[in-house]
Amino acid sequence: MDAVTHQNQSATGERVDPEEPEKATRRRGAALEAAILDAAWEVLAEGGYNGFTFDAIAERAQTSKPVLYRRWPTRGDLLRATVRRHADLTALPIPDTGSLREDVISLLRSRNGDRSSLAALMSVQLGTYFAESGTSPADLRREMLRGRGGGMRMLTERAAARGECPSGLPERVVTLPFDLFRHETMLTLRPVPDEVILQIVDDIWLPLLRAHQG
Length: 214
Description:
Layout: H1 3-7, H2 29-47, H3 54-61, H4 65-71, H5 75-89, H6 100-110, H7 114-125, H8 127-133, H9 137-145, H10 151-162, H11 171-188, H12 194-213
């Protein structure tokens, strides 16, 4: 075994990444990627896409740029992986109160607060990314969901099985409460007041469902 190979092994005989700083050599595989993506989210939240650089992320994660480039060749690749991890970590349970109205109100309330404000801020800060990549916030949202499906579709299908609303509702009808909620968040960059949530559900959405049922 030559000296270089020996230097690239840990005390347990496992190979370590020679590009990793010595204080981080114990992080490998999934643990290393998680640490990098967590650091990347912090950089994104603080500086937006303009500050989302390999230099800044490598420094925050206490690693080196080659370590990042081997896993995510472009800044867009790293951004999408960062957003996916954050979405997975912050995923909230879907309410099941036995009432469609209460389920939807609970869902919107659970998405409120700092989480919704940060999501809106991210959309504003990512304007440069969307321009560079030719994508849209809707594309990034699909990346975050990764086939999981939206909470509103789950709630309406469950309510349809109980006879509370029609089955097979158009997608725009199903997602209307969350679309209006997100629009409010985007305009104000603040949590949505509870009275607005109730207006969205009681004054706009439920009458629309009754019209479809009729």
